[in-house]
Amino acid sequence: MVFINSDPTMISLFLAWLDLIGVERDRLIYRLSIHETADVAASTTHWARIVGVEESEFRRASLKRHIPKTVRKNVGADYHGCLVINVRRSTELYRQIAGWWSGISTFLGTSAPLPWTSESGIVQRQDTRIWPAE
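Structure (tokenized):
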């Protein structure tokens, strides 16, 4: 399962939820998805502080190529890219989430699929993306 977001509150909420359901932190892999013109080192420091890990725990950043014609709004000192959190060995977790959703929808009297799952299996809601690792 992969979670990607640029909002520190959403990142903290996701980590708190993983703690609540018993996912050990040693199963998490961190990396940045950031524009190549940004300060990767400063952004790594920023996100490491937020998630409470050493910078050395981060994998190499995924750099987005800069297209000069594009007018980006995410620039300046407040831009830190997106943090990508990969939960290793997450197939069973993904199945649990699907089961929880099935239980909730059954309780509510609907048989609706996960509201954010596309036909390709990618789970997406606003700027938050989660998809199964396997």
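The chain is about 30% helix and 20% strand. The beta strands are 2-5, 28-35, 62-64, 82-87, 123-125, 128-131.
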